[in-house]
């Protein structure tokens, strides 16, 4: 099965030149963390939150947690999430979700049996990306590759903040229990 490529080799480019100045330190930290080539420790834990399983990697530099990457595999989708820390706090989250065109087991036999026109092809996946910027535990800004219009509503941002912080805090607890 194909895996989503890590975001670390990409550049976190602003969508427009009006990106708030308070996001600059977050972007600089992102670049700093992704420039680290030799981590002092990488811990991997298998997780079974989806049908096909997954894992979480914790990246440490000099005993300091800098980055967390999770991967969740499923029959119909795959999700990768990268969490970046700045001064011990969540600063940036990159989510990449591949929604497959068909389940991974959908071969030519399944296609024929179901009078379908397609088989599973990773390259035909719908790709959804979110970039979320945090300062002091607050979601300041979010960018979604499928929404190029006005900024998100306040209630949506608050729900996203709660969702992302809850997941991040759950991962931190998981790392401490290892």
Tags for this model:
23% helix, seven-stranded antiparallel sheet, 178 residues, globular, alpha+beta, 35% strand
Overview of the molecule:
This protein is of the alpha+beta class and 178 residues long. It has one domain. Helices cover 23% and strands 35% of the residues. It contains 3 helices and 7 strands, in the order αβββββαββα. It has helices at 24-34, 108-113, 154-177, and strands at residues 41-47, 54-61, 64-73, 77-86, 89-99, 126-135, 138-144. Strands 1-2-3-4-5-6-7 form a 7-stranded antiparallel β-sheet, sandwiched between helices. A hairpin with a 3-residue loop joins strand 3 and strand 4. The protein is globular and about 55 Å long. The two termini are 28 Å apart.
A few lines on this structure:
The protein is α+β, with helices and mostly antiparallel strands and 178 residues long. It has helices at residues 24-34, 108-113, 154-177; strands spanning 41-47, 54-61, 64-73, 77-86, 89-99, 126-135, 138-144.
- Total separate domains: 1
Largest sheet: 7 strands, antiparallel
Shape: globular
Question: How many strands?
Answer: 7
The helix-strand sequence is HEEEEEHEEH
The end-to-end distance, rounded to whole angstroms, is: 28 Å
Beta-strand portion reads 35-45%
Percentage of residues in helical conformation: 10-25%
- How many helices does DSSP assign? 3
Radius of gyration: 18 Å
The average pLDDT value, as a whole number, equals: 88
The strand line-up of the biggest sheet is 1-2-3-4-5-6-7
| Class of secondary structure makeup | alpha+beta
Residue windows where pLDDT falls under 50 for at least 5 positions: 11-18
